[in-house]
Task: inverse folding
């Protein structure tokens, strides 16, 4: 069981990129709203600026999540880069100093689905990891419970090859914040494997091996290792992961009773990503129509039912863009269990 230091044993609700269903992702506003909506922990993705500062963004290319495309002073920075074997065109955080990144403002990633979030476009700067750590400490004090943090290292090998390794800066930030210690409410995540193995000796926090529902860890592919994420999501894979990590974070399409049972057999906690309220992200049986009788991407479906499906599997936590939904289901299940009956009883 993942313990954030509060003694709570209920499954965790982790605000994915903050409450990114309601605010532009990875802004301090999104993180704070996540906590105000009841999330137990926050999930910041970490990338690195040209001068070695960690900031919260989901990928190196920042044209989709900031207003940089509308900034004429950065027009000549548009370029194409190959990241983990895939060509990407746009503006890249590793080409900008922190001072330059600070001039940018966040925008909604998927405005066609989250039109209401565009109200907040241009209102919030890109947050540094240090600022996220400071916010976590402040919110923990204000709400009277330790807020967990699940920082994810993005594209570890790619940044390291550019001379901007994320891991040393991450360890340094956690050291300075007093969070690199046993019992820390921090759990460091990665889709790659070698960096987590190396971090096992440098970090006293929890480590989470992420498992996607397609492809393979970039570091394994680069090393000629044929193993895929599907290979890692097996008893043999879990046996290897358990040597360096404390938990697996699995894409929801991977998560079923067998995976949960097998991971638990090796002492690994199981986290599920990502729960979202909108029809676009829900299975067909949980999509709900709008007033015209048709279902639309941006309408909310039966996200409560999806959250219940995964929480009933005995997972230790869920990542959600809409943490209030997951919190409501988690709390109802916990209360129903304490009364000795199911949620519908």
Result:
């Amino acid at each position: 069981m993942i313990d954030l230091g509060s003694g709570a044993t209920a499954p965790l609700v982790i605000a994915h990129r903050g409450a990114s269903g309601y605010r532009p992702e990875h802004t301090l506003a999104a993180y704070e709203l996540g906590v105000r909506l009841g999330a137990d922990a926050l999930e910041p993705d970490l990338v690195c600026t040209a001068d070695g500062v960690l900031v919260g963004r989901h990928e190196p290319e920042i044209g989709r999540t900031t207003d940089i495309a509308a900034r004429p002073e950065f027009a000549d920075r548009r370029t194409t880069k190959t990241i983990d074997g895939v060509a990407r065109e746009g503006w890249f955080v590793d080409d900008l100093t922190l001072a330059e990144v600070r001039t940018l403002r966040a925008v909604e990633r998927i405005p066609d689905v989250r039109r209401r979030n565009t109200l907040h476009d241009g209102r919030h700067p890109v947050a540094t990891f240090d600022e996220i750590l400071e916010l976590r400490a402040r919110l923990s004090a204000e709400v009277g419970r330790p807020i967990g943090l699940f920082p994810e290292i993005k594209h570890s090998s790619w940044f390291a090859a550019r001379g901007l390794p994320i891991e040393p800066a991450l360890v340094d930030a956690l050291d300075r914040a007093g969070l690199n210690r046993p019992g820390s409410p921090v759990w460091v995540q990665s889709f790659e494997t070698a960096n987590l193995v190396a971090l096992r000796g440098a970090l006293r926090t929890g480590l989470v091996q992420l498992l996607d529902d397609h492809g393979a860890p970039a570091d394994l592919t680069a090393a000629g290792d044929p193993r895929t994420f599907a290979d890692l999501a097996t008893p043999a894979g879990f046996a290897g992961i358990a040597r360096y990590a404390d938990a697996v974070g699995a894409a929801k399409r991977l998560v079923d009773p067998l995976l949960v049972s097998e991971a638990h057999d090796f002492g690994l906690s199981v986290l599920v990503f990502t729960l979202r309220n909108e029809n676009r992200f829900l299975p067909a049986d949980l999509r709900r129509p709008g007033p015209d009788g048709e279902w639309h991407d941006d309408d909310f479906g039966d996200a409560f039912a999806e959250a219940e499906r995964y929480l009933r599997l005995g997972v230790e936590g869920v990542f959600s863009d809409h943490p209030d939904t997951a919190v409501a289901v988690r709390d109802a299940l916990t209360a129903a269990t304490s009364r000795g009956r199911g949620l519908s009883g």
About this structure: The first helix runs from residue 28 to 36. The chain has twelve helices and 13 strands. The two ends are 26 Å apart (CA to CA).
